[in-house]
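Protocol step 4 of 5: obtain the predicted structure for the target chain.
Materials: sequence only (see below). No template structures provided, no constraints applied. The aim of this step is simply to have a reference model before the mutagenesis design in step 5. Sequence pasted as it appears in the construct record:
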Amino acid sequence: MQTISKETRAGLVEGEFDPKFKGVVDAFIENFETRDEVGAAHAITLEGKTVVDIWGGRKAVDGEAWTRDTVSIVFSCTKGATAICAHMLADRGLLDLDAPVAKYWPEFAVNGKEEAVVSMMLDHSVGVPHLRAKVKDGGYYDYDYMIDLVAREAPFWQPGTRNGYHGVSFAWTVGEIVHRAAKKRLGAFFRDEVARPLGIDFQIGLPEADEHRVAPMIYAVPDEATMKSKFTQAVIKDPQSASALFLGNNGNANFNSRECHASEIGSANGISNGRGLAGLYAPLANGGGKLVSKDTLARMGRVAMATHEDATLLIPTRFALGFMKSMDNRKVENARGMSVILSDAAFGHVGMGGSIGFADPEARMSFGYNMNKMGNGILVNDRCQSLIDEAYRALGYRSNQSGVWAL
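Step 4 output (structure tokens):
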């Protein structure tokens, strides 16, 4: 392993890396020099061993240095952590993904959701992409309040007949199924059964003692391409659309607040860094490890739902059960920042603004990246994708022109 200590426009970049992955490190530095990165961390494991562990920049523009232990909210990367918990319970025989939701959560099986099955919650087809009723101020921080709202919500479509990204409601659909099956709330189950055994820095419900380590998110200013996207236009023109409700009906949640960090939002408020994200997926890149069996791992990585137009995001999407697969929307009109190009075997989850964690069982690689300056678009931006691209090139992958990285 080689060490790096290099000054950039945004601050010092530090860490260590296997020389084979020098292209990844160069791309990470380039993000600070030319792509307006402020602070970030990135890690890769290969066959269970760390081959990249780098970080740099600042926790805020002109703020203090981003250090090895700096963390940030990783938004929807949290969904991957929540999905892992559900699959672990399935692997232990405590949760049947093909069973009716009513078996575990009878209060949910009302108002047109009576026939919903558990897997529909994981693949975003259960029909509750958000809530029509106005969420009270601070509602996202009140778990029992949100569970009740979600349970009573009438579906936007017949469950299982199509899919639409459950951008925030995933926290309470899948999160409550985990709670019912495990007899323990999601945040505690993840801490006790995943994060602590793996020794990773990833929390859903941050203790106050760790708040000082958090780099606040710097929100993106929508650019012209973002404003022209089908998703943004739906938000503007149809306030009752799933797109608009997902983006705006949030009870004035402040994701930079201590109150938000402390709560349990299993779709959106996980706190981690590149090392934690890569560590989360390392067992899944290497046969399942202590998390799940090989059979469960095979199901986790398989496409479960795909569509030409996601009912919420209004772009083509591909999902496994709780995870994103490679999504190539580079040729879709007005869809910049709405792709994530992985290998066909890879699965994981993007976080709003451009963070990501994923496993590639074929390459035996896990990958994690977080940052504090969010990019435009729904999926990853060029900062994150450049790191993914260089990682695959380092492993001898030839091209991503087919929509996935291929050997």
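Step 4 remarks: The mean pLDDT is 97. The CA atoms of residues 24 and 390 lie 5 Å apart.
Proceed to step 5.
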